[in-house]
Amino acid sequence: MRVLVRNPNSGDGKRSARAADLARDRGFDVRDSTRAGETYDLAREAAVGGAELVAACGGDGTLNEVVHGVDDADRLDDTELGVVPAGTGNDFADNVGIRGVDHAFEVLESGERRRIDLGSVDLPADPEIDRDDALPPRPFLNSCVGGLTAESSARTKPASKRRLGVLAYVLTTMAHTRGFEGLELEVRVGSERDPTWEGTAAMLLVGNGRRFPGEQRRQANMEDGKLNVVVVEDAPAIDYLARGAADRFLRRGASHLTRVKASSLVVDAARPRQFSLDGELVERRHVEFGCRPRAMRFAVGEAYDTHPEENPPDVS
């Protein structure tokens, strides 16, 4: 059984509708969500029911929920995964070489399957935000972002995303820049007790499937068991954004950036802040990141690079 879990409200709706037609023509069982979070339930049910392939149709958030559902069903080892890009943001699909709806079905039918990494976030109990219950670990495929872009994404209106696509996030970030207080952080890598970095940051970027804008090649190495970590110091980043130079503030070699590769890290903020897991917002002061090496069997396109060139220092 092959299942397409579809968010019919992703993006402009047109790509999602075409995906449903193509999927049915090819014998997929198309299961549509009707409410927020239902793609998680549908994917979990498909995995428990023995689906050999579960593909997500939507954006990065939909894909995250689908993988989360299969993972919680304890079926990642037995279920192939794929993506049909139909959302506002389709970063992960692009990074695994999927170039559109039609191409996605070509890949699902006959493309290569690779074992690729899965990022994870542990969210311990945090009584500082009136919550004494620990949340279960959450997966992320592409990235987890804390700071300016995470807090701006919460302010980005759905209508703006539909009209402007990913540009909506950039414009909201620019509008929010002058009122941003900065993110007081301590970042510890691996088992180190002393902070690898501490101070005021504009952003914390933790990538599994991607590196970040300002680099010639965005795809990270998704088979090395490492996360790509970038800390963007506060003042220079705010200055670049205020001057409309968002394409330059993450340029390689910039003095206001700290980059490392690590299999795990711990982040403590001075107060609870928002973190965006593939677009899903959570609020925490203490966050623990990990990488699950080659946890997923994923359908990838011809442009997927198994060994992209890497430059950040590698810290275990």
UniProtKB/TrEMBL annotation:
Keywords: ATP-binding, Kinase, Nucleotide-binding, Transferase
Coiled-coil positions: none
Cited PROSITE patterns: DAGK
Limits of the DAGKc domain: 1-125
Matches recorded under SUPFAM superfamilies: NAD kinase/diacylglycerol kinase-like
Signal sequence segment: none
Annotated GO biological process: phospholipid biosynthetic process
GO MF terms, alphabetically ordered: ATP binding; kinase activity
Source species, domain of life: Archaea
Pfam families: DAGK_cat, YegS_C
NCBIfam families referenced in this protein's UniProt entry, alphabetically: YegS/Rv2252/BmrU family lipid kinase
Protein name per UniProt: YegS/Rv2252/BmrU family lipid kinase
